[in-house]
RNA sequence: GCUCACAUAGCUCAGUCGGCAGAGCGCAUCCUUGGUAAGGAUGAGGUCACCGGUUCGAUUCCGGUUGUGAGCUCCA
C-alpha cells in the first residue's frame, strides 16, 4: 500500500495506483488537471511513485493551464490529420494565453478550414479520448514516425541523445512525439477556439520551409473563454493605429513611404509636451543637451564599427563632393566627437550629453507596425562619459530618472533585467575581466540601492558591455520595452577617448548609453494604448471645450474660451448649431477631459457647468475656481481628474 | 524578406456570379435655439490602390507592383 497525504487528509492506495485514483480518493473535482508531488508537477495518469504528499493543480496554476492548452494543441493536430491526412506535423506547444500547432499541409488554411477543424476538434473532445503516455526505445519511435511519414518529428527525434527513453502520447488514432505533460483525456477541454493562422518557419529559421501555424486557446469553461475574447476586443479598441486615426494624432502615408510617421497637430502637441518635460528633467539632473547632424561621413561609421556590424540596418551611402555619407542609425558617434573635441580632466566627469536624436534604420518591411516599429524615429538618447569609479552613482542616477519618468506616465509596475556575460564564453566580449566585473557589480549594486527587483540574464550582454533592460506593464497588463541602460567599453577604445586623471596620465572613460522613453514614436504609441486614447489633462491635445447651450451664449462662451486660452490652456469653443447633447457626445468621443457647458444661467451668474469625460457632471462653479483646480491637475501631472479625489 | 489574407467616398463598411457604384458617420447650406452621449431637410464628395492581361465591355476574372493586417525572423 502507498500512503498519500493532502493537507491533513490521508489515503492508502494499492501499488500501481495513479494520481487519478488519488483524485478520486480525496474527492477532488474535475477542475483538477494535474498534481504537485513533493513540489514537482505530475500528470494525473502518472503512477504514484511511493509515499508522498500531493497538492491538486487546477487551471489557475500555470503548469496545469499549460497542460490543458498543450492537450488542446494535440486535439487540433488530431483534427487536422483527420481532415487532411497528407498533413505533416511540426510542433505544437502551449503559449501564454493559448497554444499553436505548426503544419505542413497540402491546403491553405482559411477561415472555412478553421471552422471545419474546430468542429472536428469538438467531436474529438466529446469522444473524450484518453490521452496516454508511453515510453519507447528510439528505434521504436523512429519506426512509428516513419510509418506515419512525419519527417519533422523524425528530425526532432534524431536530436534526442541515444539511450534516453522517448516519450510519446497517444489519443485515439493520433500519436505525437511529446514530452508532455497532458491532461488525462480530451474531454477535459471544456471551451476552445481557433483564433488565426499565420506562416512560421520550421524551427524559426528562415532558411527552412514555411509551415502554417494555427493559433488557438482553451479554457475550463465557456465563460472564461468569452471573457478572454472580450479582453481581446478591448485590446483591439486600444490599438494605437485605430486611436491614432480616430483622434487624428498621426498617420503613415503610402505616398511618403512605409515606416515613416506624420505627426498631426494633436499628436505633435503631445510629443512637444513630453519633450519639454524630458528636457527640463534632464537639465535638472545635470545633462547637457546637444543637437547633432543627420548624416556623417562613411569613415566615421567605420571607426565606430557600425559599418561593420550594423550595415544591414543602415541606408545606402549618398555621395557629396565625392565623399560617401550615411544617414545616422544612432547618435553615439556624434556625442563622442563632441566629447573628443576638448581635453577632459577627471574633474569634468561625468559629462552627460542628451539629445532627442532622430535616426533612420532600415527595417524589413514585414516588421513595420504603426508607430511601434518604424524606419525613422527619435530616440531620447544620452551618453554619460564617466570614470569607472563613478559608474555606480551614475547608474543609480539613471535608474532614478527612469523610475521617475515611468511613474509620471502611470507605469507603476516594471521589471528589471540585468544582462551579464556568459561565464562560459568570456572570450567573445571586449574589455578585460576586471572592467567587466566592475561594471556588472556596479549595475547590480545600483539596482539594489534603488531597491528594484531584477532578474539576471547570463549571456544576454552585448559584446561591448553589460546592461539593464526595464520592461513596463501597461494598463491592460501587457509588457513593453522600457528604459535601457547599456555600459560600453568598446566605443571608448575605438574612438580612443580619454581624460586626464589626478596622476596627469591619460585614462579611458566608460560610456553609458541610456534611453528612458526609448523613442518618441514607440513611447507615445504605447501611451495611446496605455491611456486608451484618454490622455491625462497635462498631455491632452485639447484640454477643455466650452459648449454654449444655444447661440445666445456664444459671446459668453467665447469670452470664457479666450480667458482660458490666455491662461495657457488648450481650449476650444463649440459654436456649432447642434443641440448640447450632440456637442457633448462629440467631445466625449474626442476624449476631451473637460466640457464646460454655459447656458443662460451660467452667463448671468458668470459661472460654468463643468463636466468631466469620465466623471460626468461636476456641477456649477466660477471660472477662477475651475482654473485653480485645472492648474493643480496640470502642474501635478495627475493621471485622473483632480475632482475624482476631492469630490 | 517570407507565408497567408486584405485594399470601394475624409472615416466605418455594403455591393456588382463581368454591363459606366451604394449606406451610415463626417463635411457644406438652410430650418431648429436647445441643459449634459446623436433634432430635421437639402447638397457636394469616388479613375472602386497602381500597372498590365483576358474580354465587345473589368471596380468585379488573371498576373505584377505598392501599401496594410496576422504571424515567423529581427528590434527602439
From TrEMBL:
It is found in: Cytoplasm. PROSITE patterns: AA_TRNA_LIGASE_II, TGS. Binds 1 zinc ion per subunit. Its cofactor is Zn(2+). GO terms for cellular component: cytoplasm. Pfam families: HGTP_anticodon, tRNA-synt_2b, tRNA_SAD. It comes from the Bacteria. Zn(2+) binds at residues 332, 383, 513. Residues 1-58 form the TGS domain. Keywords: Aminoacyl-tRNA synthetase, ATP-binding, Cytoplasm, Ligase, Metal-binding, Nucleotide-binding, Protein biosynthesis, RNA-binding, tRNA-binding, Zinc. This is Threonine--tRNA ligase. It comes from Candidatus Fermentithermobacillus carboniphilus.
